[in-house]
Structure formats: C-alpha cells, structure tokens
Design a protein that fits this description.
The protein is mostly helical. The protein has a domain at 1-93. The chain has 25 helices and no strands. It is elongated and about 100 Å long. It starts with a helix and ends with a helix. 35% of the residues are buried.
Length: 529
C-alpha cells in the first residue's frame, strides 16, 4: 500500500516541473541525480509503476480524480524521449508493453459494473460514476497519445535498435475499445463523456494517419498502415464467449459498432472470430439482443463472399438460426430478420441451374410460405406493415415462381387492401406494389383471379373517396397511382371484362381524383381495342 506521504506529494505537484514531481515521489536515484540533465535518471517503468500503485491505492472517487489530474501534469511535463524511446534509461525495456499495462490500469478504472443477472442489464443508477471517470481518463489518454505520436518524429540514440512497433501503435487497440465504449448514447455516457470520447477517437485516427474509422480498423488501401481490427477482436474474445458476453453491457455494442465499420473484403479474414459471437448474441432470449445479433449476421452476409459462407455449412447454420426468428410476433425483430433472410437466401440458392432443369421448390418457397401464412392471420398494424414491406423483394427474387403461391398471396392482398392503416397507409402501399410485381411476373396465371382482384381494387377506390379521412392527400394520391398501375396491367390481360365494370363505377363516382384514375384506365382500354 502506497504511503499517504507519496500520494499527497503527487496530488500537490501539478504546478511543479517533472524533476520536482519525481523527487517528491522519491523516485530519483541520489547517486545518479544530475540537475543539468533535461530528463530523469530512472527508467520510465519505475515511475509508471509507482504512479500506478498510488492510483490503485486511492479508494475515494475524489482522490482518484485528483491523481488523474496530476498524471496529466506528469505527462505534460515529461520529456518525450524519456517516456517512449527504447534507449538511455529505458534501454533493454519493452516500452510499448510498459505503457500498455499502464493504460490498461487506467481503463480498468472506467470498467462498467459486472452484471451477474441473466438479463445482462443493470439499472441506470449503477453507472452514475462511469461518465466522469471516463472523461477524466480520456483527458489523460489524449495527452499520452499526443506525446506518443510526437515520439515517431524523434531519432533514438546511436546504436539503438528501433522496435518494429511504436508505443503508440501498441496502445491503439485497447484505447479504441475504450473510446468506442463511451462514444455513443448509452446509460453509462453523458454528453461531456461522449464528446471527450469523440476527441479521443479522432486523435487515434490522426495518430495512425487514417482518415476515418474504417481505415483505422482495416488499414489504408495503399498498404501504408495495418488495421487494428484483428487486435481489437483478440482483446474482446474473452468477453464474447457464451458465458461472459452479458457480464459487461458495453461488450455487445462495441462489437457491433466496430464490426459495422469493416466491409468487404477485409471482413472475410476475421470470419472465424465474428461469426460465432454474432450467433451467440442473436440466440439470446431478449429481443434487444436478438436484434443486435441479427444486425451483425446481416453485415457478415453482405460483406463475406458467398463461397466462404457456404464453406463448413455456415450458411445453413445461419438459415436455421434466422428461420426460428420468423415465428416471433415482435415487429422490431421481424423488421431486421426478413431483409437478412432475403440476402442469405441469395447465398444459399445462388448457383444457377442449367437450362431445361426443373425448378424445384427451394428455401425461398419455404420462407415465403411461412411469411404469407403469418400475414394472412396477422392483425397488429405494426407487424402488418413490416410484413408488407418485405413482400415485394421476395416476389422480385422468385419471379415467375411466385405462381406457386398465388392462392395464399391473393388472400393476403385482398385482406390487406381492406384494412385502413392511416395515416401512412404503408401496408396498403407495399401490398399494391406486390400486386403490381405479381401481375408482371405471373400474368398467365392472373386471368382466373381477375374478378377478385378488380373487386378488391374498386373497393379500395371507394374507401379512398369516402373513408380514411385521417389519411393525408399526398398518401391518397400515391395509393391512387398504384391502383391505376394495377388496373392498367389487368386491363392489358382482359380489357373487355374490365370496361363494363369500370365504366359503371366511373359514371357514378363523385370524387374527382378517383374519377381521373378510372378515366385513365378506360382510355387505355379504348386504345387497346
């Protein structure tokens, strides 16, 4: 335990120069002391070890804050050559490892409380000390990184072997994780701590000569720098195991944020590390964690070559994990699962078939069958909108093969067009887009369903002219535009059957916009005749 005398000396030293600070700490060797020397006569490891010991011995937040303030003064006053160069008093020492240990001890001061609960979350009150601690540590790291960056421009003493990695490079991964932890709006951050973390992240990029976070993690395209994403993952690996990823609430958020910064082709190299962690997070029972995990998986699917995803049956593992999520009734989860599943199916069913080969039902059909079944029974407006938004891309991917699902798709279209979801009318709009796409792709099979579809569209026209007063006029106009497109497509299939029906409606319609829509369709049918 550090003596109170030493701790008090460091706290009283901010206005002193470096020599006075070290003397008060009794770190100077009396026999080696040289008043004319611009730098101390002791290795930096001894000074950092003593300061680290004092900091860890401080028990109260006020004492820790005071020591951090004095550490800033110590770093500001210290000579860059003495702090980082592998020569003089530091000869034979691994300066990078020494500073790494010191920085990790400071970062440990800001570690979030461990969560032993199965939910993986603690109340907001548990984090009330973290923002101030993070801000104080960030101020120390800003000075330290600035000094470390300046060391690159200094020449070591003669006959000194220059290490392959500078102290600044050694510190980048751990400081990056610290900055990313406090960069975004979470329970353990405030506006001031986020601002400080943002400055630290900018300094990290400046230190590594990178323009953005992507270059910092992946390296520059010209090969001038090596990315730190592999080192970041290595530091996070112990915390991303099945038994440990919930102990620190920030772990999953830092993993997601850093993962999203790494695109193709760099992500493929790290697939063995990011794939299991993403699956673990997505397999949790809490919706929030499932959404985070699926977002990770979607990024992996979009940025890893299909051949690598199919290797070792990874794609099938992904498929079963996502397929199980399709049975949920949570709109937030379905909203991220459906686009992810659609892109994964492109990987699974991507190999083209030879001409003339029969197109057997595949996993596209399996997924769409389940989606249509849920849509047919769904009554929650939010979920109906999510499902309707995903329907057009599936129809476009299947093309003519959508004919396999026309019976159930017809019931879904009719059912969704009957229900007003004002004011956005999002469900109706996307279902009309789905109908339009279906007519274009499966037009030979549409004729038997013509009367059912026309009846549903005419009912929608009536609703728009008489009901849904809360729907903005711009939304109504967009709906009318899509209805017109669908009727025009249907008129190309069976103009004679439609002309009589629409003519009667047009003659009795009192709404000017609906009447204009019908007139446009009737004019098109006259041209076809």
């Amino acid at each position: 335990m550090a003596s109170f005398k030493h701790q008090k000396a460091l706290q009283d030293a901010p206005n002193m120069d470096l020599s006075e600070i070290l003397t008060k700490l009794q770190l100077e060797n009396k026999e080696a002391s040289d008043s004319t020397s611009p730098q101390p006569c002791i290795p930096v490891s001894k000074a950092l070890s003593q300061i680290q010991h004092l900091f860890q011995a401080a028990t109260s937040p006020k004492a820790q804050e005071s020591i951090l303030k004095d550490i800033r003064s110590f770093l500001s006053a210290a000579d860059v050559h003495w702090l980082f160069s592998p020569c003089c008093q530091n000869a034979g020492l691994n300066v990078g490892d020494i500073w790494k240990e010191f920085v990790n001890s400071l970062i440990q001061h800001t570690t979030l409380p461990k969560c032993e609960l199965d939910s993986g979350e603690l109340p907001e009150s548990s984090y009330q000390l973290i923002p101030d601690r993070a801000k104080n540590v960030t101020e120390v790291l800003l000075i330290l990184l600035s000094k470390a960056a300046a060391e690159k421009h200094l020449n070591p003493c003669n006959n000194t072997v220059v290490p392959e990695t500078s102290p600044a490079s050694t510190l980048l991964p751990s400081v990056f994780i610290f900055a990313a932890t406090h960069l975004q709006e979470y329970l353990w951050t405030t506006a001031s701590s986020r601002s400080a973390a943002n400055k630290l992240m900018n300094l990290l990029m400046e230190t590594a000569y990178c323009k953005n976070v992507h270059e910092l993690l992946c390296g520059r395209q010209d090969g001038g720098t090596t990315g730190i994403f592999g080192a970041v993952l290595e530091l996070q690996r112990p915390e991303l195991k099945k038994e440990t990823w919930k102990l620190n609430q920030a772990t999953k958020h830092v993993f997601l944020w850093s993962l999203l910064q790494v695109p193709r082709p760099w992500l493929c190299v790290h697939l063995e590390h990011v794939f299991p962690a993403s699956l673990i997070i997505s397999d949790d029972y809490r919706t929030e964690n499932k959404v985070l995990g699926v977002r990770c998986l979607h990024h992996i699917i979009m940025n890893v070559p299909a051949a690598d995803l199919r290797q070792y049956n990874r794609a099938q593992v992904l498929y079963h994990a996502l397929f199980n999520h399709l049975y949920t009734s949570d709109a937030d989860l379905i909203q991220v699962v459906l686009p992810c599943m659609l892109d994964l199916l492109h990987v699974l069913e991507n190999p083209s078939q030879r001409a003339g080969d029969p197109r057997k039902p595949n996993q596209y059909d399996e997924v769409l069958r389940l989606i249509l079944m849920h849509m047919e029974m769904e009554h929650k407006i939010k979920l109906r909108r999510v499902y309707a938004r995903s329907l057009p891309p599936f129809i476009e991917r299947l093309g003519i093969l959508i004919a396999r699902h026309l019976k159930r798709l017809e019931r879904v279209i009719v059912g969704f067009l009957e229900v007003c979801d004002a004011p956005e009318e999002e469900a109706r709009l996307y279902v009309l887009k789905s109908l339009e796409s279906t007519i274009r792709h499966a037009w030979p099979r549409i004729a038997p369903r013509l009367h059912v579809l026309v009846k549903s569209l005419v009912r929608l026209l009536y609703d728009l002219s008489t009901e849904c007063s809360s729907t903005p006029q711009t939304v109504k106009d967009e709906l009318l535009e899509h209805v017109t497109r669908c009727l025009l497509l249907l008129s190309e299939l069976c103009a004679q059957d439609l002309q009589a029906v629409l003519g009667d409606i047009h003659s009795s319609c009192s709404d000017a916009r609906v009447s204009q829509c019908l007139e446009k369709v009737l004019q098109s049918m006259r041209c076809l005749q």
